Every structure is written in C-alpha cells, then in structure tokens.
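Retro notes
What went well: the complex prediction finally ran end to end.
Inputs used:
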Amino acid sequence: MFRRLAISFVISVAAMNAMARTRPHYGGTLHVEIAGDAWERPAGVARRLVYDGLTQFDTNGTLRPALALTWEQDNNFHRWQFRLRPGVRFHDGSPMTSAAIVSSLTASCSANCPWDTVKAVGPLVIFSNDSPMTNLPALLASDQFLIALTANGDGRSPASAVGTGPFQVTGFNNGVLALAANETCWSGRAFADGIEIRVHRAVRDQWLDLSLGRADVVEVPAEQLRLAQQQHLSVIQSPPIVLLALQLGESGMLANVKARGAIAAAVDRGALYNVIFQKQGEVTASLLPQKMSGYSFLFSTERDLNRAHQLRGGLATGAITMSAEGDGAMQLAAQRIALNLHEAGFNVQMAAAGTQHADLVLRQFLIAGSDCGAAMERILWDAGLPASVADKTSEDLYKRELSILDNHRIVPLLDLPRGYAIGARLRDVHLRADGSPDLSSASLEDVR
Amino acid sequence: MRAMRLVGAVTLVVCWMTALACNAQTAQVQSRWAQPASDLAGQIADVLGPGQAQLSLRNLSSIQGSEIPVIRKLIEQDLKTRGVLAGGAESANAIRVTLSENARERLWVAEIVEGNTTHVAMVHLEAAEAEAIRATSERVVLRKEKISGLVGRDVHGIPVLGAAEINGHFVVMFADRISVFSNTGGTWTESNTFVMTSKLSRDPRGLLLPAADGGTFTAYAPGTQCSGSYSLPLNGGTQDSGWTVKCRASDDPWPVYQSADASSAPALKAFYNTARDFYTGVVAPNIGVDLPPFYAAGMIPRAAGGAAVLLAGVDGKVQVVENNVMRPVSGTRDWGSDFAVVRSGCGSGTQVIASSSGEAASDSLRAFAIPALDAIPESNALGTDGAVTALWTAQDGKSALAVVRNGLGEYEVDRVSASCN
C-alpha cells in the first residue's frame, strides 16, 4: 500500500513538473517594480534594457560580442581595436558609428579611464594606453561603459536615454518608466511589446502587487530571500555575485596600514551574515567567491579583537566617519560594523547615507564574468584602486589578491546573491551574469 | 546443516567478490589522484623539509567522500618518501590540505604552518567530465550522434536554424549566413560562407530543404529565400569552390510538410509571420479546416491507409487533422514546439520524435506513436546536452536532426536515429 502510494506520489510530482519547452509568445506588457531608481548604477534595471555595451557577459559569465563583433590587441595589450557590428541603429534611427561610440565612452569616462586615448577609425574603435590593458574587453562589458547616443544628452536620465538595446524609452510619468520594444534591435525584437517599471516602490508593496497580479517581476533583497520562500513566492536568485565590502580611505589615522589592519580584524562578519543578512550568501574575506577562485578559504574570516587591539596599539584615535551605500540592510550593517569598531577602540561617527567622502564606506561590488583576473580588476576599478590584473594561474591570482588585501584599503565581508520574484504568467526570465533580470528574452504566457 | 553450509559458501563468494570490486575501485581512485597527490607532497616537502607535521585534510570539492581516505593515504605516502612524516600530535608544524575547485579546474591547496608562518602550496588539475550513462529500452531505441567539429567563423553563439548533408558537404544555415562545411580529416571545417540578410529575431527559425537531386537546396529564413547549388568546378577550382547561393527577399509560404520521406516534394506550404516567428495558419493547399497559428506540422501515415496532419500549435496544443476534422492529441502535455516524423520501420513503422524539458536544464527527446488520438511513448527519453532549439526530419526520412544549445550558449547539431529494440 505504502509502495503504491509512493509510486503515485512520484508520478503526480513528475506530472506537475512536466513543462514543455514551447516557443515563447510575442506581445503584452511586463510590469516591473523596484525600490530604487531604474537608471542608478550599477544595478538600474532599465539600463541594460535600453543600452548595450561593446561587449557583454552571457549568463555563464563568458564574454561575448555585443556592439563590437570582434576585438584584438597588439603591442602587448597596450592597444586594442574593436570592430563594430554593421547595420546597428540607435532608437532614433541614426546609425551606430565608431564616432558615436567614442563620444559615448568619452562622456561616461572623462578621467581615470582604463585607457589614455580612444579614437574612431572607420568601423574600428581603437584604445591605447601606456600600461597594458589586459582585461579591457571584460571591463567594457560593465555598466559604466554602456553606449548611449550623446547627441541627445548624457544618457543618464530617461529623457535623454537613446541607445541600441531591445527597448526604448517612451515616457516617464507618475513614477512609471514606460519602455517599448525596439522593432529593429540588432539582437532581435524582444518578445514583450512593452515594459512598465514602477520605481521607488517599497519591497512590501511590490510583493503585494505581485500577489494581486499587478506586477510580474519584483525585487527580493538578499536578507528577505528566506521570507520570500516562506511566502511561497516564485523566486529566482543569482549565485553570490555581489561583494559587500568596507572601503577604507587613507587619510588621517587611516594613512597607517596597521590602523586599517586593525579595522579589518575587528569586523564581525558572522554577525552580519547571521543577523542582518539572514544567513544568505557566504562570509568571505577575499575579493572573489570560493566557487570562482577555489582559494577564498585561505583568507581568514574570523574576527580577531585581540589582534585589532594589538595593531591599533597606541595610535591616536581621532573620529572616523563612516557611511553606507543603499538603505535598509546596508545601513543596519554599517551600524553593526561601527559597533564592532567601537569595541576595538575606534571612535566611529556615522555619516549620512550615500556620503562618498567618509573614511569608511560600506559598498557593494558586482562580480560579473567567469574570468578571475578580469573580475578582480573590475572590483579594483569600481573601488577607485585601478590596477591591471594580468595573472592567470590560481597561484598568481592568490598572490596578487593577498598583496591587495594586505594593504587593507578594501575589506571583503560577504558575498550576497541577487533575487527577484516573478509572476505566474511570466516565462523564460533568466538572470544575467550581474544578477539582473534579462527581460528582453522573457515572454508572457497569457498573450496570444 | 547442508543449507547452512550452502549459505556460508555463498556468503564467502559474495564477500570475496565485494572485496575484489572494492580493490578494483580503490586502484582506480589511486591511479586518478596519484599525480596531483605526488605534486602537492613535493611542494609541501620543499617548504617543510624532512621532519614531522600534523596533517589534516578537508574536501570543498565535488570529489566523493569515499575517495578522500585514498587521497589522504596517497599524500601521506608521498610525504613519507620525501622525509615528511604525517602524525605527531606534539609537532609544531601543521599541514592543512584542502581539496577545492573553481569553475575551471580542481585546486588542491596545502597550508603549511611553521610556528607563526603559513606557506601556501597549490596544485591544479582539470575537472573530470562526468559521463552520462543512459538506459535504453522499449520498442524503439533513440541514438544520437553529434555532428562534431563544425568549426568556423563565429560559430559560437550564432543560432543554427537548419542543416543538411548535401553532395558530401554539410550545409548549415545560421541566423546570419549559410555556410558550407567540408570534411577534412574527419572534422567539418567551414569552407564557404554566403551572407544572408534576414529579419533579426530573438527566436530565429528557418528551413533548409535539400532537393531530391542531391545537388541543390532551398533555404527559408524570415523574409528571405535562398537557393543553393553545387557544380563541380571545371578548371582550377577546388572541390569546395563549386557552391553558389543566391538569396532574395521573399514572403512566399514555407514548405512545412514533413512527410516520413522528406526527400519527396513538400505537400503543404504555410505562410510565416516574420514579426512573431510562427506559421499564421494559412496554408496551401487547403486541408479542409481553418488551422490556428502553429510552430510545426508533419504528416503521419495511418495504418488503415491515408494520412493525418499533425500540428504543434502556438497555444501549446498538439492536434491532428484527419478527414477534415481537427482534434487534440492526448499525451503531448510535455512536448516542446517542434517535432520530427521518422520512418523507423519499428512498431507501426513511423514515429514522432518530440522534445521535452520538464524542469531540467537540458531537454530530452522521445519517440511516440500516434495510432489514433493518443501519443504513446515508444522509446526512453534520450537526454541532450542543452535546450533543443530546432528539430526536423533528416533527408533520409529515417532520422531527425536536432539543434541543441548547450549551457555555454554554443549550438551543436545532433543526428537522432530510431532503431528497433
């Protein structure tokens, strides 16, 4: 009897899971709700719907062509040339030319760029630099270097957003950004006719709208993933690809590497992981996640208050300012770290959220792509500590990372996943390598 | 008493055979890990020199737990031959070995602790590929053969829409071009490329139909029709240079009729909606009923004579049109949007090969018989290495060709043949 019941259960479960991989349907409007701004970097959900980069990462983190079809380096990575994909047009119908690319890149990076010069030569975009640019193709896939038509503005607001991506901006009213499918998109027309993104919506309201069928995609912050699962939301989440790290300045008492080392030793990662982020992701003390590098465990994640006191020694303890990017869990995490540092004898004063010039800034860094060297260089670039990482073997990468972290300008804390909950009528939503949802390939089941 | 002796003898034999099997397995594990264990032990000994050290080992990799004691023993032995004795709880030196891995490789790491100093040694080795073992049974056995070595420009990530072997060459229709591959030393290498300007799509589809004469083909892509022909070069040219392909803008209907003998003239043409990537349902000649929009159609012969038309609709329903009546086919809930009709000669003689995915990352293919209004599985599921993006009847009518997009986003072509069990 039990056996028969068990078999029936297995068959019924198998039948429930039997889903045909039928072709997607075109049409309909997707409704997305987010807590932040659709254009904010690096995770603004609208940016990659409207813009493309010269290169892009696929879902496996492999670098693929986008607006550039091919690229090659010479002079030992001091010069790169990218050949553009022919026939691509901006949303306003104007052709994508190498001059337009150079103009966009110059607008998005006017100083401290990964290159010294960028110029247009026929269908080529040529980058040159005094130092080798080993990972330039991977860097160009990052959010900062998405290509916008600068003739219309800087591309940083909906009004001036003209790109080559699968959707184009049609309006922004009452907190709803409206996008329409780009019929002539070089990568093919998106399945949905349009997307409406409601911005600045509290996560609790997003979930309510999802349950009422008023939203198709809503956010699930890392610390609420467990709650979302308990509420039986259909959640898709990325691997832990967001590095939560404390970035340290080097002015005042922080000019002393021992003081920075004391701060690194005083932080209690376990408390952040267990309490603030509800055991999501992984505790880390390295720039790259364990699954990516294979050596992350070599960096100790244990709090060592004795060592912190020892390193701080008799250093003068002036006030240290601290801020956190983002709100909610990030602010709580910053407060918890301030408490840790207080226990180590530091006088930490919290600065307003988003203050960029604090001595300590709690930040999130995206780890995109499967190439360890390129991912490390990208983190350093985003942290304002640019350095070319040409190392390829695990031993060399480990040594490189060790030397970077020994300087304590950046203190890795946690690797967090990104999550979204999706409605029942939506299918084929995949997360990109950076954990954002790729809505250009998503379709709605109930359109005919 | 006699029965007890018999049981005892059987037990002894079973134990002996088990021991033999265990020994064989251990030997296999030893031979697999001997080299990295030796390399790591060498690096440790270089740092530590002769002496004693406490050895600990942990596994953060996908290596099975049962293999860990063997690996530990290998490392201990290799250390011993280099003068490092593992053990000695009182020793100040410690060796912490971690079996780790990343996306590219296995990484064995030794942290060698000498007092307050820790040295790190690493050995990396390629991750072993798991070999899938698939059981086959039932009336029809599906086998797949990867058409390997389709090497050429930008093959990776460019969708394959159709393919056919013509005149000793492999003609492949990509989303952006038609390429002719020549067999050089067992590998297919792109020898000719003809750019094709068709409407861009996120779900691109196409048809590549070889003619019965074996020397020409017609290809259909959204908004485009191409004709290809091969003639042996007269003077000087190589064998590969005899191909010509001409494309033109076209909204002519596509020949979708997949008979069990694909080399016969197509009997059903359907208009294709280039904006939505499906057949509109308007067909020529008229088959007696108004068809809904559909993704695939094929003809299945009936035992009583005559034939029925099978349709995979845009709404996910599979229906059969017979005697001017369209009725749903049951047992097709987990079918994908494409299918291929093959003449295997097994069972009823004709099977429909359909793809399905379930919740798995990779699709599978299965042969069905449709004697009436039920799809009856006639083969086990044949796993593919990714998502099946296109499936059609091969030129011989006895096999199907499937395009599979693997986890890396690369496309490969599999020939799927059905044989009797």
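What we learned: Residues 2-17 of chain A form the longest helix (16 residues).
What to try next: split runs per interface for comparison.
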